[in-house]
Specification:
Elements (H helix, E strand, L loop, with lengths): L16 H9 L11 H24 L1 H11 L2 E3 L7 H10 L1 H4 L4 E3 L15 H8 L3
Parallel strand pairs: 1-2
Length: about 130
């Protein structure tokens, strides 16, 4: 039995994958920018909680990791300038299978900036753009 299931009368790992996916999809990030600043701040706060929950689910059990890990990579949201976007991009380049899951990227500044220490190599840029 999975350690995450021991304290529950009915283990979460015993739920069918379809139910687990439905639960997990209810905590995926909210996309887009809202026109009112208070609404946008609420959306960002909610997304922090949702992504934290998704990260926690990936660590709960092997079954949840297999189901949740691709969903975690569906959206990259940069909440603070210190969050290194290039680390995310390099992870995607090292594990191309994760790139197929990406559906949404939200950054605070351009990903590629000329002359910056965080610029990608020409090869990495071409890989991201899908060129050879």
């Amino acid at each position: 039995m999975d350690p995450a299931d021991e304290s529950l009368p009915f283990g979460i790992g015993q739920l069918p994958d379809e139910l687990l996916l439905d639960i997990i999809h209810r905590v995926t990030p909210i996309r887009g920018f809202l026109s009112y600043q208070s609404s946008e701040q609420s959306r960002k706060k909610e997304n922090r909680c949702r992504l934290s929950g998704l990260r926690s689910l990936t660590l709960t059990s092997q079954k949840l990791h297999l189901i949740t890990h691709p969903i975690l990579y569906q959206a990259f949201i940069q909440f603070h300038p210190s969050l290194r976007t290039h680390f995310f991009l390099r992870t995607i380049l090292k594990k191309p299978s994760l790139a197929s899951h990406i559906q949404y990227i939200e950054t605070l500044r351009p990903i590629y900036s000329e002359g910056s220490r965080t610029t990608l190599t020409a090869e990495e840029t071409c890989t991201i753009q899908g060129q050879s």
